[in-house]
Design a protein that fits this description.
heterodimer, A: 541 residues, alpha+beta, twelve-stranded mixed β-sheet, four-stranded antiparallel β-sheet, 18 helices, 22 strands, 32% helix, 21% strand, B: 337 residues, mainly alpha, 16 helices
């Protein structure tokens, strides 16, 4: 029985070992394998997909599902890996601002077909965006600035914007703004008109199939087991490299590593820092890297009712100067992370490592002690540090918290560790009841305004920071600014304001690493929202 | 007998309602907001969306009313809609249950088929090498943590020796057989897809062995102890005195008497297997109920938690009933009382 798993497998390696251990049956099948081994036709990815709840673009709100949706849908515009300040054409070839930015006019490509062979028109764009607005599920909040859509002609569509000073172009590249076929979706009960939140019934079909223009189309989703994609024969971007893509659920990272080493999967998405370290020198396995826009950060409250000491700005800044940031990145992340200055991750809004050099917090124990003395707490103080009992980007919150606890002890600050259940933590944190938390930020789209407004609105409430009007003015001005250089200047000014305030301490922004087999190449990671440029992956030459 | 059955069934209904009530109250007492397990950061800060979600899932109603809605649905065979998957809970359970049932049934059969004979032999050949071997196996099976054992066998037979298939129910190249029962072995056999059958069977070997390890140990030890006691009884001495064959004494006379504690334990073990496979399922990426239960619990998906509670309660009670009824077969005295 064992050994049959290799029947019709593309790879033929290790047959000698199998003959030794598996006996004649294994040998017979291993010998058959090379006959079918010419061209690799199936791409198999090992991913923890247990978080996936649905794949309907108008409803999707999970971490792993955009990997699939990024491969089966296109949006009007897209972003190249590493270039998150600008958008490039995708289904739209050109766009212009009309009526002072109250209307955006998009010209569509005229050679795009959906996977079923029907042509893409402005009607499909209108249908998709209207449905996003009217289904009113989670992704709709990203479109809150979109008033309505209007078809101009078959290949021109206008988007009406409520507030032109709030940027929207980068959001349009996100998976929530996917464009799909009106005909296919309506045939499955899709509704895009007001009332869709009650009447639409296409989600069930969209969870098993896709209606897009991407390089692949979805043919199956078996929950907690696998997702199967088929080549799109009508893809507008040229020949698609694989016949099929299988996204295989492997929840345990050690099992993912074994499957990769055995050649059963071509890429392992969820390995830990230690596991990746063992692969660094491997001759058979490559590691694809990509700077994410996610980060792990720590908050300190301004609420004197919660902690009198933390309510003093000098004490918060003392904490910020007592943390060994390089040690965290070096030892807990194996060097695979960077650190942004404050709430804007490196790669957006002018946030860079140079800026960190200039205005970032640096480990400086003398300065920390000085700040404590200024605050009237020369012997330090005590606060409660809350975090989730969970793993995070290859390490764990527990390790991070312990590291910070020992760092702060050097200047007499005592962090009492308070691990808790994730949802409980979130309840306390969003309720503004925590003194300090370590948590994670994962953006829906690389629009800097999303981070900036969060940091002065909802997150500010969580740390009980009463945000002054001048800070709000700078953020609003940055959002409305059309000139890139001036925009960066404004965001830098805002970042400095956050630094002086000391409520947020950015710990690290991970470089995501995915281990891949040498059977594939051009495996490019992206932080734009869909993790990997699936359409670019090819069989190794 | 009929009266006994009716009383038992009536008490089962009461037990099930009590079990769901307890779980309902505990899960609602957790100081965490279920909305925050479902909504993203921007969404959770949007009052209109939060209100719409609460209203949609009935989370704005008083707790007792939520419980009665659950009971009302239950009576109509409706478990409600899962907040996470946004599908009927019954659909979710029906989808995940076959994978768990297939895995635990194979594991259970494995532990009985190996455990009972091993226990009998260990008792008959007391203090022989086979007795010591059985003791060692039981000890390892009972004491080795499941997640550790699961990973070790996976690393050894899949990673190192490469004679076993990896995680999941089937290799990537096979499609699941046409759905009849959801049990891949049964469905593939019905469809005559013998290659799928062999692959599914191969995928079952490691996880079912790991799962069986704990119950195998328990069953072996219990069988051995019960057999030793039975072999010391007067009727065995009488049988020997009458010149019966040793084989007849063991199989016909001692074993049936020794089976009562084994059946009790076996029934419980099967229920534990059906409801407690979360670690094995995680490591072997097995799309079963364990994983679903875990995710429902951590995301405070109340309808799903309640559906599973109901299911687990029913499984335990039904298995207990079967165990009690089987006493009558094994021991006629039970009926006479």
């Amino acid at each position: 029985m064992p050994g049959l798993r290799n029947f019709a497998r593309e790879k033929s390696g290790r047959s000698a070992l199998r003959m030794l251990v598996g006996g004649l049956v294994v040998a017979a099948f291993a010998a058959m394998a090379p006959a079918q081994a010419q061209e690799k036709q199936v791409l198999v990815l090992g991913v923890d997909i247990s978080d996936a709840r649905n794949f309907d673009p108008a409803r999707m709100a999970d971490y792993s599902s955009p990997i699939t949706n990024g491969a089966v849908y296109d949006s009007l515009v897209t972003q190249k890996p590493g270039e998150y300040e600008t958008v490039v054409p995708s289904l739209a070839t050109a766009w212009e601002r009309l009526d002072d930015g109250k209307r955006l006019r998009f010209t569509l490509r005229d050679d795009v077909m959906f996977w079923d062979g029907s042509p893409l028109t402005a009607e499909d764009v209108k249908f998709s965006l209207d449905r996003l607005l009217n289904v009113k599920d989670q992704p709709a909040v990203y479109a809150s600035n979109l008033e309505k859509t209007e078809v101009v002609d078959a290949h021109t569509v206008d988007l009406y914007i409520k507030n032109p000073s709030e940027p929207i172009m980068i959001n349009l590249a996100a998976p929530a703004f996917a464009i799909y076929s009106k005909a296919m979706t309506e045939a499955q009960g899709g509704v895009s008109t007001p009332g869709a939140e009650q009447e639409d019934s296409a989600t069930q079909w969209l969870n098993q199939n896709s209606a897009g223009t991407g390089p692949y189309h979805m043919v199956q989703w078996e929950r907690n087991a696998q997702i199967m994609l088929q080549k799109n024969p009508n893809y507008w971007g040229g020949e698609v490299p694989f016949e099929r893509v299988v996204i295989r659920h492997i929840g345990d990272s050690a099992a993912q590593l074994l499957a990769l080493e055995n050649g059963d999967i071509d890429a392992a998405f969820n390995l830990t820092t230690e596991q990746l370290a063992t692969l660094e020198d491997s001759a058979d396995i490559d590691i694809a890297r990509g700077l994410s826009l996610d980060y792990v950060y720590m908050t300190l409250t301004s609420g004197a009712e919660l902690n009198e000491a933390l309510a003093k700005t000098e004490n918060r800044l003392a904490v910020a100067h007592a943390i060994d940031y390089d040690g965290i990145i070096e030892h807990l992340m194996g060097g695979n992370a960077v650190r942004p200055v404050n709430f804007l991750p490196i790669g957006v809004g002018g946030s860079t490592e140079e800026l960190l050099e200039q205005i970032g917090y640096k480990e400086d124990l003398d300065k920390a002690r000085e700040l404590l003395a200024q605050a009237g707490n020369p012997d330090g103080f005590t606060f409660q540090l809350s975090y989730a009992n969970a793993a995070i980007v290859g390490t764990s919150y527990q390790l991070l918290a312990q590291k910070i606890q020992s760092d702060l002890a050097r200047v007499g600050i005592t962090a009492e560790l308070n691990p808790m259940d994730q949802v409980q933590l979130r309840t306390q944190y969003t309720g503004g009841e925590t003194q300090s938390v370590i948590t994670f930020w994962n953006p829906p789209s690389p629009e800097p305004q999303l981070w900036a407004s969060a940091s002065i609105e909802r997150v500010a409430k969580r740390v009980r920071w009463d945000v002054p009007q001048e800070v709000r003015d700078v953020v609003a001005a940055a959002g409305a600014e059309q000139d890139p250089a001036k925009r960066i200047e404004l965001y830098t000014e805002y970042t400095q304001m956050l630094q002086d305030q000391g409520n947020y301490i950015l710990l690290f922004q991970p470089i995501y690493r995915i281990a891949t087999s040498q059977a594939i190449e051009d495996f490019d990671l992206t932080a734009a929202g869909w993790q990997v440029q699936m359409g670019d992956i090819k069989p190794a030459q | 007998m009929i009266r006994y059955l009716i009383t038992r069934l009536a008490s089962m209904v009461v037990m099930i309602v009590l079990a769901t009530l307890v779980v309902f109250l505990i899960s609602h007492l957790v100081p965490a907001d279920p909305i925050l397990a479902q909504l993203g950061d921007m969404q959770a800060a949007n009052p209109a969306m939060v209100a719409a979600y609460r209203a949609r899932w009935g989370l704005d109603l008083p707790i007792w009313q939520q419980y009665f809605i659950f009971l009302e649905g239950l009576v109509q065979g409706n478990f409600g809609i899962s907040i996470s998957t946004q599908r009927p809970v019954l659909d979710d359970i029906l989808q995940y249950a076959p994978a768990t049932i297939e895995l635990s049934t194979i594991a259970f059969l494995l532990s009985v088929i190996v455990g009972v004979p091993l226990g009998v032999i260990a008792a008959v050949k007391r203090d022989s090498w086979i007795d010591h071997l059985a003791r060692l196996l039981s000890l390892v099976g009972v004491s080795a943590p499941t997640f550790w054992l699961a990973f070790v066998v996976l690393a050894l037979f899949y990673g190192g020796l490469q004679i076993a298939p990896g995680p999941g129910r089937l290799d990537v190249i096979y499609l699941p057989p046409p759905f009849v029962t959801g049990l891949y072995l049964v469905d593939s056999a019905l469809a005559g897809q013998w290659d799928v059958f062999r692959n599914a069977a191969a995928h079952l070997v490691l996880p079912s062995t790991v799962l069986a390890a704990t119950t195998l140990g328990l069953i072996t030890r219990t069988t051995r102890a019960a057999m030793l006691e039975a072999l010391g009884q007067d009727y065995v001495r009488v049988g020997r005195a009458k010149g019966l064959k040793e084989r007849t004494i063991i199989v016909r006379h001692a074993l049936p008497n020794a089976l009562i504690p084994v059946v009790t334990l076996g029934g419980l073990a099967y229920a534990v297997l059906l409801s407690g496979t979360v670690l094995t399922e995680t490591i072997f990426s097995w799309p079963g109920l364990g994983r679903y239960t875990f995710r429902s619990a951590v995301s405070l998906d109340f309808p799903a938690i309640m559906g599973i509670t109901f299911l687990v309660a029913v499984v335990y009670l039904v298995i207990n009933l079967i165990v009690d009824l089987s006493y009558a077969l094994l021991d006629p005295r039970v009926v006479r009382q």
